[in-house]
Amino acid sequence: MSAVPRLVVAAPSSGSGKTTVATGLMAAFAGRGLAVSPHKVGPDYIDPGYHALATGRVGRNLDSYLCGSELVGPLFAHGALGCDLAVVEGVMGLFDGAAGEGELASTAQVAKLLRAPVVLVVDASSQSRSVAALVHGFASWDPAVRVGGVILNKVGSERHESMLREALDQSGVPVLGVLRRAPQVDTPSRHLGLVPVAERRSEAVAAVAAMAEQVRTGCDLEALLALARGAGSLPGAAWDAAAAVAGAVTGSPAGAVTATGAGAVTPSGAGAGSVTGSVAGTRAGPGPVAAAGTRRAAGAGAASEPAALAGVAGVGGASGVTAAAGRPVVAVAGGPAFTFSYAEHAELLAAAGAEVVTFDPLRDERLPDGTRGLVVGGGFPEVYAPDLSANEPLRAAVAALAEGGAPVAAECAGLLYLARELDGRPMCGVLDAKARMDERLTLGYRDAVAVSDSVLAVAGTRMRGHEFHRTVIEPGAGADPAWGVRSPVRRVEGFVQRGVHASYLHTHWASAPGVARRFVERCVGS
Hints:
This protein has helices spanning about 20-30, 45-55, 65, 70-80, 105-115, 130-140, 160-170, 200-220, 220-230, 240-245, 345-350, 385-390, 390-405, 415-420, 515-525; strands spanning about 5-10, 35-40, 60, 85-90, 120-125, 145-155, 175-180, 190, 195, 260, 265, 315, 330-335, 355-360, 370-375, 410, 420, 425, 435-450, 460-475, 485, 490-495, 495, 500-505, 505. By secondary structure, it is α/β, with parallel strands linked by helices. The strands form five sheets. Strands 3-2-4-1-5-6-7 form a seven-stranded parallel beta sheet, with helices on both faces. It has a seven-stranded mixed beta sheet with strand order 12-14-13-15-16-24-23, with helices on both faces. Strands 17, 18, 19, 20, 21, 22 and 25 form a seven-stranded mixed beta sheet that branches. Strand 2, helix 2 (about 45-55) and strand 3 form a beta-alpha-beta unit. Helix 1 runs parallel beside helix 2, helix 1 (about 20-30) crosses helix 8 and helix 11 packs across helix 15. The chain is globular and about 70 Å long. It starts with 5 loop residues before the first strand and ends with a helix. The model is unreliable at about 255-295, about 300-305 and about 320 (pLDDT under 50).
């Protein structure tokens, strides 16, 4: 059971200012000395990096499509353990979710699963009295969603504010904040959204500080905290990586998510056990997480870890440190080029018996000592293709590891890195494929089935994933494809060869802890 006070920050649509408000609230409350647990609805990897910067804690995702609705509460409780407050940033519009799946994966669904009040952020820049009709509609659409207040964003003047407040007086929804237009809180974007924190650390720190100041100045923090404290208790046990791995099945498709009805998913290991001890990196503060015992590859700075791994228990990173007895080293790519990772992946690998060590493919010329397995997640290799290509010693080391049959798991950016070339520049050459940038955005949830036995899953394992890229790889699948994608269009994609599993599909291993257990078992046997 979790009694952590909590708020969900939502909006009528994307672009309304959710990230500014949510990150500003996190930083403002952390600045008051509260331990703030940051969360993001949906699969987004970038916003949690800003959340971590604001709170000093690991940013975590809550995605009912990827993990199943049954895991939303337990994963939230796991992340919020020992905190004074949790702030959850929504996705898109309040009621927008997975296409064709009703409310599944929407902010509204997550708010209901967490029994949390919603703070609606409204872009008021081009309206006055109509704001009352808009807020009334969102507050009344689903009686099970409690809209506890509204924050007006991009308000132009005092007169504009007076008009908006007057209109909302009759709505029954209190105004908890008014934010004026403020260019200094804008954060740069590119082809896949905001530029990750790891690529602009000093500018990101300044942006988060500006967000916090704007929220402190324009919002009623006491009223917002009182609203959060009215959320009450959330039943059920917190998710626990060790319990999930212990209960996982690695030799059959049963270890993965399975459909139980329209839009429903039942994950293995849901709610099993409770968290023991505390999560590393739980301090509150404006700076990055400082995890006790964190080790990184030799010469790598704090930015070498993916944002999701900073402060995760069991994650290290020192090239000269050998693994503990019986614990195979699993190297995890980090640094500015590979910032996309879910914190639970490292926790599951550690729980399965691995020593997780991060390294930076832009700076490190060799893999961590004793590497028995490699995980290369998502990110922006297309932005750093020249530097990645120039690091020939590491490319050769990765190719040799794969050639030797060691387990290698690569998602999206990792897939491109393993290819023969990216935009004409040599990569690792593990896969006989070429990758290039493309104008078309590939985006959306995917329902997939493992086509080939691999280091992650046996054939027939059903998983749900997410694609998010502006690149193409040719061919799109190898002789032994990784996945058969069932929706929205049936196709095969990805590569399975020797110990390599490489695909565009991002998956969340909390939904299938057997993936981590199987991977580590293969590392021991390699």
